[in-house]
Inverse folding.
């Protein structure tokens, strides 16, 4: 069941044969991602799922402009990407807030550096903090918040700039199961307002299906590639806790998991048997 | 941890016990001839009386003021230089690599040997002491700022870039706060060294300051004067350290607890 991807300039992301390699010691190279094509529609929520170390975050970083592909081209809303991706917001897996700024300063900074007046930026930041349920925490420092609260601040920090494309790298990975559900609902809630294009990297298949319109499966690395592209025709609005009991959810899960399982086992065997990835290095 | 009042009483108790022993040793035959003890260690009553004279006659304030201004100048100039060079070196790895052995060599030098040279260059006034303090403060701040810039979390940096910061904004919102937080966490050490530089400089040749006071007393075997000078110096350092603690608490509030 290939998802439809019309090749219009309105598409948010175009990866044309993007491959990513890293230089290792002694002139050797590690080919993380084999040449890959991927299109993300303008209002599409796309999840990339794959075993640990399959290069899905690497692909995301190439889309963000944080990493230069070894070959291939990245186009963002039709324009070739050079340097940083200015239309994208990026939610990181690790703590990315500036610890020396208060919560509200962290949220407002994106507007302030873009030239918005301080008072105006703060007012808007306060509004965003209220939308993520942290209106009363404006003057705290990130260190004083829980992991889930910090993610909410991160979400507000990214969304306040109103990016047309949202890149998320296992954003809820470090959180506990309940908090992940709540954060997922919050994300869908905010997303449904204007349906930005989303590229969401995760290793959690449940999360991927519950959130997205399309699930992309990547093979185990090195030279990982896309091995599956599944449309998720579950009705919206969705409630993540509930949708897991939907029979369609279970069908999709079974189908996709069958494709993913072998890759997970392969990846597991690789990391288990040979701890250094150099065993599969291309010279 | 015990409560604050109990802690302070115990801390005061230590001082009382030491002074009491000192007093007993210098006035009774408990630990040998009190005259000998008083000759080598002075006695607490005379020392206190001497400090009292200094304070009430007002002669001590001038010396304190000199030492304080030398320390402050040494700290400010040394810290400014340390921040500037720490930043510059951290952002220019080639520069840091080239100068690395020279920085290490300069830092390995015991600063006391520089005091006569500074006296020669800058005279016996405050500036030779300030220079000595700068050589101490500079390296502490320099290494901390260098580390602070180097150790910025790559995720925070990437995030700031994705939020649209250019190099100048990164400097102001990411590198500088990170570097300063490292500098502030070494504030006690660097301020302490500024005072050390001032006092050692005064001790080795000057016409005013706490170091001068102690040196003068030593020159005429005035043990009471030496101990009185040391106590004033200790009180001075405790006060400065307490003030630094207040400043630090404000500046590093974001570290929380």
């Amino acid at each position: 069941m290939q998802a439809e991807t019309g090749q219009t300039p309105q598409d948010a992301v175009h990866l044309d044969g993007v491959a990513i390699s890293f230089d290792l010691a002694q002139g050797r190279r590690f080919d993380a991602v084999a040449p890959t094509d991927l299109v993300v529609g303008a209002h599409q929520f796309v999840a990339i799922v794959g075993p640990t170390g399959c290069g899905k975050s690497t692909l995301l970083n190439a889309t963000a402009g944080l990493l230069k592909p070894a070959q291939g081209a990245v186009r963002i809303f039709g324009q070739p990407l050079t340097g940083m991706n200015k239309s994208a917001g990026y939610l990181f897996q690790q703590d990315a807030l500036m610890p020396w700024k208060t919560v509200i300063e962290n949220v407002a900074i994106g507007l302030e550096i873009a030239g918005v007046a301080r008072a105006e930026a703060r007012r808007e930041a306060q509004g965003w903090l209220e939308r993520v349920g942290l209106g009363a925490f404006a003057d705290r420092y990130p260190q004083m918040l829980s992991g889930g609260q910090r993610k909410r601040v991160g979400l507000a920090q990214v969304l306040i700039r109103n990016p047309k494309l949202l890149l998320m790298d296992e954003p809820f990975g470090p959180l506990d199961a309940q908090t992940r559900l709540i954060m997922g609902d919050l994300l869908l809630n905010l997303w449904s307002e204007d349906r930005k294009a989303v590229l969401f990297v995760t290793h959690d298949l449940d999360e991927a299906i519950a959130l997205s319109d399309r699930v992309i499966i990547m093979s185990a690395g090195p030279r990982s590639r896309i091995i599956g592209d599944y449309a998720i025709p579950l009705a919206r609005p969705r409630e993540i806790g509930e949708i897991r009991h939907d029979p369609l959810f279970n069908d999709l899960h079974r189908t996709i998991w069958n494709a993913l399982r072998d890759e997970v086992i392969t990846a597991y065997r690789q990391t288990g048997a040979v701890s250094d990835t150099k065993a599969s290095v291309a010279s | 941890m015990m409560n604050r009042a109990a802690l302070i009483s115990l801390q005061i108790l230590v001082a009382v016990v030491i002074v009491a022993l000192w007093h007993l040793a210098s006035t009774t035959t408990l630990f040998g001839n009190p005259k000998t003890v008083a000759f080598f260690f002075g006695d607490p009553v005379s020392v206190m009386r001497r400090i009292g004279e200094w304070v009430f006659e007002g002669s001590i304030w001038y010396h304190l003021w000199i030492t304080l201004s030398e320390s402050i100048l040494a700290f400010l100039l040394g810290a400014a230089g340390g921040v500037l060079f720490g930043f510059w070196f951290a952002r220019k790895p080639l520069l840091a690599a080239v100068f690395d052995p020279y920085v290490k060599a300069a830092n390995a030098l015991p600063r006391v040997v520089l005091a006569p040279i500074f006296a020669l260059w800058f005279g016996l006034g405050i500036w030779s002491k300030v220079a000595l303090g700068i050589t101490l403060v500079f390296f502490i701040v320099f290494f901390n700022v260098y580390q602070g810039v180097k150790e910025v979390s790559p995720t925070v940096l990437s995030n700031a870039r994705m939020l649209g910061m250019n190099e100048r904004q990164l400097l102001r919102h990411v590198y500088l706060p990170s570097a300063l937080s490292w500098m502030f966490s070494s504030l006690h050490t660097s301020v302490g060294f500024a005072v050390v530089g001032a006092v050692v400089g005064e001790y080795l040749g000057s016409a005013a300051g706490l170091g001068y006071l102690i040196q003068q007393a030593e020159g005429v075997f005035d043990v009471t004067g030496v101990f009185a000078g040391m106590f004033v110096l200790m009180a001075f350092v405790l006060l400065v350290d307490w003030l630094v603690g207040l400043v630090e608490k404000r500046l590093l509030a974001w570290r929380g607890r």
